[in-house]
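Materials and Methods. Structural model of Glycosyltransferase involved in cell wall bisynthesis. The 249-residue sequence of Glycosyltransferase involved in cell wall bisynthesis from Lachnospira pectinoschiza was retrieved and submitted for structure prediction as follows.
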Amino acid sequence: MVDLGAKLSVVMPAYNEEKLIYESLMKTISIVSSFVEDFEIVVVNDGSKDNTLKEIKRAAKEDSRIRPVSYGKNRGKGNAIMAGVMQSDGEYIAFLDADLELNPMQLEGYLEKMLRDNKDVVIGCKFHKDSKLKYPFKRKVISMGYYLMLLVLFHLNVKDTQTGIKVFKASAIKPVGHLIRTAGFAYDIELLVAVHRRGAKIAQMPVEVVFVREKNANRIGLKDTWHVFLDTWKIFYRVYFLHYYDEKR
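The predicted structure was written out as tokens:
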């Protein structure tokens, strides 16, 4: 068991995940309870059009550690994550994707790293030498290109901002929650830039990824990639021209 001495909140966004969200929640409960005593799962229904909310409620009836958050209109993954963060009770806050391409068991090592090295943020990195990937080549290329872009623009010393598994101290993430304006896939970089500007210490850990959406491999398409590109430049403007994320706010 990881001796956190406090509660862990696991934030899980979900959009049109009726086929897997119930099983994902039950599996996450089983795994996380094996290494953390006090925890909750804050699962956010991001305006799903299917039976995702119904399945979340079914899971919550079986285990009170599952806390549903829901709203009617789809607002994007970034908004869902931050909605969950701001309603979390834990002093440690983790992110997990609903498809569990990243096994929740990996959180144990991330929390140990955070405690051992006194880090404020620990993130998964696909480009870590110890990472194990079963991952489409197209997504590898997109991820590497985005990393190079961020390295040039922000000088942020992390190789991968987009991997879905992350752990934050609540004291690092909650003070900047109201500053996050990006609702889509670029929310990761805005969040990491914001906490970095406030002096947070960030560590990277390897990931083991199993790509489970074989029939929907193009879930993130060219339109999404273009929006990430535009959002990244907006973040650049807020960082260097508006000093938007600085401590004064």
